[in-house]
From TrEMBL, chain A:
UniProt keyword list: 2Fe-2S, Heme, Iron, Iron-sulfur, Metal-binding, Nitrate assimilation, Oxidoreductase
Keyword Transmembrane applies: no
Protein name as catalogued: Nitrite reductase small subunit NirD
Phylogenetic classification of the source organism: Bacteria, Pseudomonadati, Bacteroidota, Chitinophagia, Chitinophagales
Domain Rieske: 12-114
Superkingdom to which the source organism belongs: Bacteria
Automatic annotation (TrEMBL), chain B:
Enzyme class: oxidoreductase
The name this protein goes by in its record: Nitrite reductase large subunit
Domain BFD-like [2Fe-2S]-binding: 419-467
Keywords linked to the UniProt accession: 2Fe-2S, 4Fe-4S, FAD, Flavoprotein, Heme, Iron, Iron-sulfur, Metal-binding, Nitrate assimilation, Oxidoreductase
Residues at which [4Fe-4S] cluster binds: 637, 643, 677, 681
InterPro entries: BFD-like_2Fe2S-bd_dom, BFD-like_2Fe2S-bd_dom_sf, FAD/NAD-bd_sf, FAD/NAD-binding_dom, FAD/NAD-linked_Rdtase_dimer_sf, NasD-like, NiRdtase/SiRdtase_haem-b_fer, Nit/Sulf_reduc_fer-like_dom_sf
The keyword Coiled coil is annotated on this UniProt entry: no
GO biological process, one term: nitrate assimilation
Domain FAD/NAD(P)-binding: 1-299
Nitrite/sulphite reductase 4Fe-4S domain mapped to chain residues: 628-764
EC number: 1.7.1.15
Pathway connected to this protein: Nitrogen metabolism; nitrate reduction (assimilation)
Gene Ontology terms for molecular function: 2 iron, 2 sulfur cluster binding; 4 iron, 4 sulfur cluster binding; flavin adenine dinucleotide binding; heme binding; metal ion binding; NADP binding; nitrite reductase (NADH) activity
Length: 127, 832
């Protein structure tokens, strides 16, 4: 994954590669916030979003099922199966639903890092 | 061109939407004045406000939609005067705007009959969100509610009172029947009995003469000297068009109200249009949203120079009133000497249907549907388009009987100009064209044509049109799982079996593409479990499980889980009860007895699940599979060991059956029961397979269902012994597992099975396919491979690690989880 303005990104260590189940997600604690981290080993890709599903404000996305829609990686919330794109966070099942915040992920050796821009996590902050 | 619109209701919004879509960018300036403080909202679904929808959720579009489209919106500022000579309007707050065209979309007000006492406290009208807020604030003081008016809106208002928690609600109608404009006496009688079972008392032919009470309402006085106590009243006796501005500036209005308009919706001043409920066309006020939208379309087109005409509108309507389908279409009241009627009434199920056809039996004129309005769209189109009826016209009402082909030609028989979506005025041709252009899913057609985006009632017809259009293009429509697997579940089951595939990735590599999704992953996981019965959390297959299967528990509000140990047959020892009590107290769990004779413990943190199960497993409990599409419970009555009527030992047989099929994964959940005599205390006939003792053995019933569409199980075999009964269940379950579509319960599966129960009996009892021995072998393999999933997790540190909330802080619980106190226990905090 590449972002143009890498200068403003703070990378924090999340977990080891082996900690994240293949084709699934885990929840990572960053300060007082929760980030969902997903691994797509078949494509060699990693994604991160806020853990909070905006539909019913539940901390659940890391437990959702991952997959693709016409090639676009996505996650479906375990509560009501609302799907969100992992590329830009938009809701794929309901145009009026709020979008997720997404975060860059990088792998160094067997360690996973998540990038936070500027002031930190915005959405997904605890209520 | 500058257009000023007075009023900001649904019709006004639709007019703006049409104008934005039709006019060249920058060519039209739109200014809207609304009397209410909020932008246009969905008045049709107003009662949803009381069942939890917020005012904002009801909005047609948020306030910034108007800004984004350069529409000036003045809210809370009614126009007070129109100066036709100067072509200006003046608002309450002192704004003056000039106009080239003026649109009156002022709507209507509630008609309040001049009954003494209507000004007392506790008397409301039902029109705006503000009215609803006033009702909501008053309702806690009230126990008995009443509604004057048994029409469409009155019944909606009555539903609102029920939603507000009033225990006794009465509907008072002046006419001899409910919904006098839409349905007939028989329909009204049936609707009335349905409503009374829901707590609504209906009084017809009642004239209210006075509202009793000092300052607040205490009751109603009727013309026949009777009275009715009530401490809250909603008046919904009709609508009064808001034509006062029009009258002030000298536009012609009707004797009983309404602004007179021509075919182009112009008033007597050609620069001024009137649309919606304030417009009087051909002596008629159209109090429904669909004709209002059509008026918006015609007026907008005419201003832009197109030639369209409003020629009246079909007042057919279909709605769900307090859970009861009610529909009327065409002319339901054609005089008896000008038509013939076919009537179907089923007081058991609460269904009444009547159609009026021409005396020669050729065409449908109109009709009424109560209790079941599934055929509304088809019948409406048949009537509107003068489609020739089949030789036995009753077929359109009852479907073809006696194994013949369906009577009507279906959606394909409609002419191209047939309007499929009457809210958005989308024709059959428009939908078919969209499909031919490559929009081959319901979502794509919705986006492209707007059909099925308003009330959604036409969605099934749109789906049928998509399928039939694609078929007519020679495209093969297959019942495939999703975009990742171009196979039906049955095909994939066979392929996975032949290739002996054992993981989701292997199945995806061989037969799928992409990464899978929340639809196909659980299907494949279920097929693998039904074939091999491997531990479902085996690495690689864990993330293919549906969310609840992945944590071997049911996720509940707030993100905690519930725990259900298996209690075979509902038999439990005092010692086991104590273990459950200790565990529940230790982990602070809410406990409840389930409908399946077990105990459910709620509110467990994900990281506590292995600890809880460690204690339960140590006490001999096993997983109850309440989280899986698997066998749930085999319920039993106490049977012959204690009961003086019992014929056989139903508990022992239930335990034997539950232990045989525990852990069995299927296309959907499976429920069972065993009753020890014909009194049927275990309710076996509502289960996927149910067993009832007879003098000679057991009767085996299959494919029953509770839930939203209850269905009685049907007798598969009678008077069989224990072993035969189990052999038949083995065959039945394996046949279902192999052939059913995903998430299809046995009842629905049987309903779709060609040949129905006769065919199933032939396969299971008479072995007509010659597969009975194979089915039994396959089942025995699954039975022999059973292991308790929770015991395996408890004993496996790697699997236990998966049960934590934070991967980088496994000892911490999710701090956002909140509980509230409830009757000496707790409940999940309410979500937003």
């Amino acid at each position: 994954m590449s972002l143009s303005n890498t200068a403003t990104i703070t990378w924090f260590y999340a977990c080891k590669v082996e900690d994240v189940p293949a084709n699934g997600g885990v929840c990572v604690k960053y300060r007082d916030e929760q980030i969902a981290l997903y691994h797509f080993p078949r494509r060699g890709e990693w994604y991160a979003t806020q853990n909070l599903c905006p539909h019913r404000r539940q901390m659940a996305l890391s437990r959702g099922m991952t997959g693709t829609q016409e090639g676009e990686p996505k996650v479906a919330c375990p509560f009501h199966k609302k799907s969100f794109s992992l590329l830009d966070g938009r809701c794929l099942s309901d145009e009026t639903e709020c979008s997720l915040s997404v975060y860059p992920v990088k792998i160094e050796e067997d360690r996973v890092y998540i990038g936070i821009t500027g002031g930190g996590v915005h959405a997904g902050a605890m209520a | 061109m500058k257009i000023v619109i007075i009023g900001n209701g649904m019709t006004s919004y639709k007019f703006c939407e049409k104008m934005v879509a039709k006019a060249a960018p920058g060519s039209v300036e739109l200014v809207v004045f609304g009397e209410e403080p909020r932008p246009a909202y969905d008045r049709v679904h107003l009662s949803a406000f009381f069942s939890g929808k917020s005012a904002q959720e009801l909005e047609m579009a948020p306030a910034d939609w108007y800004a984004q489209n350069d529409i000036t919106l003045h809210l809370g500022d009614p126009v007070q005067q129109i100066d036709r000579a100067q072509q200006t309007v003046h608002s309450h707050k002192g704004i003056t705007e000039t106009y080239d065209c003026l649109v009156l979309a002022t709507g209507s007000a509630a008609f309040v009959p001049p009954i003494p006492g209507v000004d007392k406290k506790g008397v409301f009208i039902y029109r705006t969100i503000e009215d609803l807020e006033l009702m909501r604030d008053y309702a806690p003081k009230a126990v008995t509610g009443a509604v004057i008016g048994g029409g469409l809106l009155g019944l909606e208002a009555a539903k609102a009172l029920l939603d507000l928690g009033l225990r006794h609600t009465h509907v008072i109608e002046f006419a001899p029947r409910l919904m006098p404009r839409q349905i007939d006496d028989n329909g009204s009688a049936l609707l009335r009995s349905k409503l009374s079972s829901l707590g609504l008392q209906v009084h017809t032919s009642m004239q209210t003469t006075e509202i009793l009470g000092d300052t607040s309402i205490t009751g109603l006085q009727f013309a026949d000297d009777s009275t009715l106590p009530a401490d809250m009243l909603v008046i919904s006796a009709g609508i009064q068009p808001r034509d006062e501005l029009a009258r002030l500036c000298g536009l012609e209005t009707g004797h009983r109200g309404g602004i007179i308009v021509n075919d182009q919706l112009q008033t007597t001043d050609p620069n001024i249009y009137a649309i919606g409920e304030c417009a009087l066309y051909n002596g008629m006020i159209y109090g429904l949203v669909a004709p209002g939208y059509e008026m918006a379309e015609v007026a907008a087109s005419h201003m832009l120079g197109a030639h369209k005409a409003f020629t009246g509108f079909d007042m057919s309507t279909k709605l769900k009133l307090i859970g009861v389908d009610v529909a009327s279409f065409g002319n339901p009241f054609t005089p008896a000497d000008q038509c013939r009627s076919i009537v179907f009434e089923d007081t058991l199920k609460g269904i009444y249907k009547r159609i009026n056809i021409t005396p020669d039996g050729q065409h449908l004129l109109g009709g009424i549907l109560i209790g079941d309005a599934d055929d509304y769209n088809m019948l409406l189109q048949t009537a509107k388009n003068k489609v020739v009826l089949p030789p036995n016209p009753e077929d359109v009402l009852l479907g073809a009987r006696g194994g013949k082909e369906a009577g009507g030609a279906g959606v394909l028989g409609l002419p191209d100009e047939a309007i499929i979506c009457s809210c958005e005025n989308v024709s059959k041709a428009a939908i078919c064209t969209a499909v031919t252009d490559g929009n081959e899913t319901l979502d794509a057609v919705k986006k492209c044509t707007k059909a099925a985006t308003c009330c959604g009632g036409c969605a099934p017809m749109v789906k049928d049109l998509i399928t039939s259009t694609m078929k007519s293009q020679g495209k093969y429509i297959r019942n495939v799982i999703c975009e990742h697997f171009s196979y039906s579940r049955q095909e994939l089951y066979d392929l996975v079996k032949i290739k002996e595939l054992r993981s989701f990735d292997a199945v995806l590599d061989h037969y799928g593409h992409g990464e899978g999704c929340e639809v196909c992953k659980p299907v494949v996981a279920s097929i693998l479990a039904s074939l091999w019965n491997d531990m479902i959390l085996t690495k690689g297959n864990d993330t293919a499980q549906d969310s609840n299967d992945r944590y071997l528990a049911n996720i509940q509000k707030g993100g905690t889980y519930s725990v259900v140990p298996r209690v075979p047959g509902g038999e439990i020892t005092p010692r086991q009860l104590m273990v459950i009590a200790q565990v529940a107290e230790k982990y602070n769990l809410y406990t409840k007895i389930t409908g399946g004779q077990r105990i459910d413990m709620f509110g467990a943190h994900v990281s506590d699940l292995p600890l809880i199960w460690e204690e339960l497993v140590a006490a001999g409990f096993e997983s109850g599979h309440a989280y899986g599409k698997a066998l749930r419970t085999v319920k039993s009555c106490v049977g012959s060991t204690w009961c003086r009527f019992g014929l056989h030992d139903s508990v022992s047989f239930a335990i034997q059956i539950e232990q045989r099929y525990r852990g069995l994964r299927a296309p959907h959940k499976l429920k069972s029961a065993v009753s020890g005599c014909i009194r049927e205390c275990a309710e076996a006939q509502s289960k996927d397979f149910g067993i009832i003792a007879t003098e000679k053995g057991w009767n085996l019933y299959v494919c029953g269902n509770g839930g939203s569409k209850p269905q009685h199980a049907l007798l598969l075999a009678g008077d069989v012994d224990n072993d035969t009964c189990i052999r038949y269940i083995d065959r039945f379950l394996m046949f279902y597992i192999k052939t059913a579509d995903p998430l299809t319960r046995t009842a629905t599966w049987l309903n779709k099975l060609d040949g129905g129960i006769e065919y199933l009996r032939n396969v299971v009892v008479n072995d007509s396919l010659g597969i009975a021995a194979q089915l039994e072998t396959e089942m025995q393999f699954l039975v022999d491979n059973y292991k308790c999933e929770w015991k395996e997790v408890v004993d496996n540190p790697e699997l236990r690690k998966r049960f934590s909330h934070f991967i980088n802080a496994p000892e911490e619980k999710d701090p956002t989880i909140k509980f509230e106190h409830l009757r000496e226990q707790k409940k999940a905090a309410e979500w937003k």
